[in-house]
Amino acid sequence: MNAPRLEVDLPAIRHNARLLVNRLGRRGIAVTGVTKAVRGSSAVARELVRAGIRSLGDSRIENIEALRDAGVVARMTLIRSPMLSQVDRVVTHADTSFNTEQDIVSALSAAAVARGRVHGVVLMVELGDLREGIMPEDLEQFVAAMVRLPGLNLVGLGTNLACRGGVVPDEANMAEFTRIVGAIESRFDLTLGVVSGGNSATIDWALGTNRVGRVNDLRLGESILLGREPSHRRPIEGLRTDAFALVGEVIESKVKPGQPWGQVAESAFGTAASGPTSGRIVQTIVAIGEQDTDPAGLVPPAGVRILAASSDHLVVATEQILPIGTELRFEPNYAALLRAVTSSSLVPGGRNLYVCA
Ligand SMILES: *Cc1c(COP(=O)(O)O)cnc(C)c1O
Q: Could you confirm whether 254 is annotated as catalytic?
């Protein structure tokens, strides 16, 4: 088979999605399945739908368009603010988008009216992580201006923590979110159907608290795909962490000194080679590199240790000389997965992951 390649075990993804849908469902929280880390793969999206997920989210309109083209049936939400240059595509292909800027909301309104559509808007509220979000003190004024716009429907509020500042969702910030939801509802005499409390980093809070408050939706990517929560990268109980494998092929395997010789300065990617302090090792080269993935985010198979990586070479220590052509399987973390999925060398044709099982 072709190498390098990214393999996905679809039953593992379905298992993870189903388990999270059930656990959170008992707490009144629905799951929006986030497909951005698999670049809107329809094979993965179909598993999410089979697992009982009714709503899919992606940060790129291209991915949502690909899901629609593939015939995936679900509510589609653009979970990054639309670009002004893409509002027409957004109202055409996404049911809902996340928003934080009045200029964009106005453009969405005009585009929706022109297309004869009603576009759903979720307003994102800043709760301290300092990525996207309207400051809580500005929210009321924002909503007042937005609800006057034709072609738009304010379907809810959302918040996002842990992505930029690493701020952990806890009782205090989540209670604040519920308070904000209640305040907007009573001020404008409306009911917000979607109260989207966060990403995979919010699972611990949601399953541990006895006060989920108004939160009725979480947007989950990493936890479903990799079975881990992002704040500490701990495996989530009962979930599969091995749904993805990055498979590379050995192109050199020799006994070599553990240390480079000659005068040492910067290497291609800024860091000097590291290795055992002395002696000789079996050094093996796998034909994968920075161009294909984030080598620092790969977990090697047993008996293999990653030493270094450049554009197209992954240098590893192995216990013995491996036959040329041997395939080695690595488990990607989130960063490695994201880069692998978007690498044209690993996923030819863009979104067709190699499906196994
Ligand atoms: C990426 C993203 C998610 C999903 O995050 P995971 O940690 O992969 O679950 C949710 N919400 C927003 C706004 C995102 O950008």
A: no
